[in-house]
Every structure is written in structure tokens, then in C-alpha cells.
Design goal:
Elements: H1 24-29, H2 41-56
């Protein structure tokens, strides 16, 4: 969880007490545990391009 000051508070997912049958990835992406990654298509493309350039360069 990100604070107003910009720092992030980290805690284990087990602290949120998910059910055993719960899909953790889906719950995280839906914000169920307090943190939602904000990733745009542009960011994904830039990161993939950067990794490809690094691997071939």
C-alpha cells in the first residue's frame, strides 16, 4: 500500500487471510488486498522492448 508521502508499505499476502480456494492473482489484480498494479499497455511495450534490446545487445 502506498502512503501519501510516496513510500510503500509491504506486508505478506497471508496477512489479508485469503481463503484456500481463492485465486490470489485475480484477487490482487482486482484490488482485494489493498494494492493494484497500475500498468498500461505502453509501459508493457516499453519494458518488453528494453528487455529485448538488452538480450540482443
Amino acid at each position: 500500500m502506498k502512503q501519501r508521502s510516496g513510500e510503500s508499505e509491504l506486508y505478506p499476502l497471508t496477512a489479508a487471510k485469503p481463503r484456500k480456494e481463492e485465486n490470489l492473482e485475480r484477487g490482487y489484480l482486482r484490488g482485494r488486498y489493498g494494492g493494484v498494479p497500475r500498468v498500461t499497455a505502453g509501459k508493457i511495450v516499453r519494458e518488453l522492448s528494453r528487455r529485448e534490446a538488452k538480450a540482443t545487445g
